[in-house]
Amino acid sequence: MTTQTLGVVMNGVTGRMGYRQHLVRSILAIREQGGVALADGSRVVLEPVLVGRDADKLRAMADRHGIAAWTTSLDTALADPANTIYFDAQVTTARERAIHAAIAAGKHIYTEKPTAETLTGALDLARAADAAGVKHGVVQDKLFLPGLLKLRRLIQGGFFGRILSVRGEFGYWVFEGDWQAAQRPSWNYRAEDGGGIVVDMFCHWSYVLENLFGRVEAVTAKAVTHIPTRWDEQGREYPATADDAAYGIFELAGGVVAQINSSWAVRVNRDELVEFQVDGTEGSAVAGLRRCRVQHRSATPTPVWNPDLPVTESFRDQWQEVPDNAGDSGFDNGFKVQWEDFVRHVVSDAPFAFDFLAGARGVQLAECGLRSSAEGRRIELPVLDGKSA
C-alpha cells in the first residue's frame, strides 16, 4: 500500500469552528486513522500547517496536538511547494484576499462560507480558480448531518410522494455578554466586520434546499436586529449593527415552498437546535441534527379542533423514529467526511459538487435576502451556472 503526504495550510484555526471541527475533528482525526483511503487502496496523509495572527496561540496549539509547522506569515506557508491545499476559516472580511493569494500560489482551495462578502467577489473567486486550474470546494456540512442524511434517504425512497412544503426552525439565545458570556464572537453582531445571521445562515439554507428539495428561485425575507446592544470579549459595550434574526420564505424550483426562521434571540423549545418539517402528499418528516421522525399517510391520525376540551393525546408520540442504518459505528463527523471527499477530489479527481460556484449561490441568496428585507418585497434569483462564472 502506497502513501503520499499533502501539506494543508489552515488559516483561521484559532477560531471556534476552525479549531474544533476542521483541525481536531477532521484533519487530526484523519491523521490518527492513517490518512484518507483512495479507491486504489493507497492513502493520503495530511500534515497541517497552522496560520494565524497570534504566535502564542499558534505555538500552544501546535504543541498541544503535536503539529510541526505553524507561522504568522501566510505568504511563507503558500510559498512552500509541499503545501498542496489551502483552507480558510477566517472572518469573512479577510477571506477573499487570502483565497486570491492561494490561487495565485497554485494551491487547491477548500474554504468555509461565505466565500466572499459580495456576489461579485464570490464569482470573481470562481473565475480565478477555474482560470488557474486549481480545484476548489466550499464547506457544506449540514448535508452530512445524520438527521439530513436520513431525510435524503426518505426523499430518494419516494416516502413523501409530492413534497409540498418545508418549515425550518434554527437558533438559540446568544447571551448579550454583560452578565453572562456570549457563545459567539462579537464580530457576528457587527455588520462592518461581516456579521449578521442572514450572511451566515442563508448560505447554509441555499445548499440544503438546493440539494434536497430544489434550487431557490425567489426569496421574501425580513432581517431584524432584536438585541441592539451587546458586550464584547473584553466586556465593552458596543452597538449591534448586524441582524440577529431573519424570517424567510423561499420559493423552490418544482413548486416547493420553504419557510425558515433563523435567530440568535430565541429560546429553544424543540428537540434540536435546528429542525426541518417536510410535508408531502404521502407522508411527513421532522429532521434535526441527528434525529428524524416520520408519519406516513396510512398512519396519520385525525386531529379535531376543539378549544373547549383539553388535549388528551401526545402528538409527538404519533411519529415513528427513522433508524440510523449506517453500520455499527454510526454516522461519521460531517466535516471530516467532506474533507475526505475533497482530498479524493484533489488527488484522484473524484467528483465533488460543492465548488466555488455553489458557494456563490449561497452568497447570492444572502444578498437577495437582505435586499428583500430592505425593500420590503419578493426578490427573484437569477440562475447561476457555469456560464455565470
Automatic annotation (TrEMBL):
Q: Name one GO molecular function term.
A: nucleotide binding
Pfam families per record: GFO_IDH_MocA, GFO_IDH_MocA_C3
Identify the residues that the record assigns to the Gfo/Idh/MocA-like oxidoreductase N-terminal domain, covering every copy: 50-136
Where the record annotates domain GFO/IDH/MocA-like oxidoreductase, the positions are: 149-285
Q: Which domain of life is it from?
A: Bacteria
This protein is called what? Oxidoreductase
Organism, by scientific name, is: Embleya hyalina
